[in-house]
């Protein structure tokens, strides 16, 4: 959205706008170079070359080898491939999963439990972190997988994966990391994390929707989800999404190129926003602000407001933000992430998420810094909780 227009898109953890260079990288695949990468002829060879170039770029983004990358239809499929692929026979198996995972991991783990697996759910601290000692204590001789995300989609809080990776390696249990909200925002190295599997998704770093990848460390035994052709080293059958994969490769290259500069720029905008809200609403709290966070995410708890009311009020002024995860909006349940961090249901409902991206300009953020506190103040004026406090004399109105 141009800086001059009213409003801006601040919901980049839900999805990001594809960069123009990404669209340009995809265009030939939808026009002249539409080949099937499994074909022997020239069109097929061209498609194969494009896929392999994108594979190298995706691998570089996370410090992996190209032959360890399996392209999927996105983060959800990558997560499902990791969990079901590592635990093909759930009965008698045990897995360790954090309670703050995205539904793609959470619901896959619940399904494994339905099929007979035992699951240990790890809680989070008030600042949104999973404790490595909890992982250690949950280990059993029959533990087949540990799955903990790198950055949380609602709070942006970065989890202590390196410490969890050391515990996993010592116990010889494979570790899966959902890095969907981390890849392209912070440096990711599968070696430093010590994981066997890692999921990432193009549309979270300005690539197209519907394409992602699972990193599978060399030597990891994984059962495929789909059966068919021998694509992706027999780990993911089906003709490759050529345009999507080419777009993911271009997005990965650009994300890596701009990683440090964007992290500095976006965290500056995010911090200014949080400071502006706190200055006018002192009871507001940025959840996880004391913990390491990805640079683009702010989860604000504003006592007394309904998160959804603020989202709607801002939408009317042209600003897109969200309450918790986009995948669960429309559901009346409070966010499972926030309740796992110890927030009461009412507190969790009083939270909104603002997530920045590469296309957000400083002028947009500055305009938002003026509008957001004013909209919050307006909603607080209307809030039943405030009325009750005024009635009881707990607060006075000037
Ligand atoms: C942490 C996390 N994991 C997985 C997913 C699912 O990814 P996709 O939308 O590519 O299926 C998301 C999407 O919001 C996410 O935030």
Sum up the structure in keywords.
398 residues, Aspartate Aminotransferase, domain 1, Aspartate Aminotransferase, domain 2, 2 domains, seven-stranded mixed β-sheet, 12 strands, binds pyridoxal-5'-phosphate
Structure report:
- The structure is a single chain.
- With 398 residues, the protein is of the alpha/beta class.
- It folds into two domains: 8-16 and 259-392, Aspartate Aminotransferase, domain 1 (Alpha-Beta Complex), CATH 3.90.1150.10; 20-254, Type I PLP-dependent aspartate aminotransferase-like (Major domain) (Aspartate Aminotransferase, domain 2, 3-Layer(aba) Sandwich).
- Helices cover 42% and strands 12% of the residues.
- It contains 13 helices and twelve strands.
- The strands form three sheets. A seven-stranded mixed β-sheet has the order 2-8-7-6-5-3-4, sandwiched between helices. The protein has a three-stranded antiparallel β-sheet with strand order 9-10-12.
- The two termini are 39 Å apart.
- The model has no long low-confidence stretch (mean pLDDT 93).
- The protein binds pyridoxal-5'-phosphate.
- The site of pyridoxal-5'-phosphate has 14 residues, from α3.
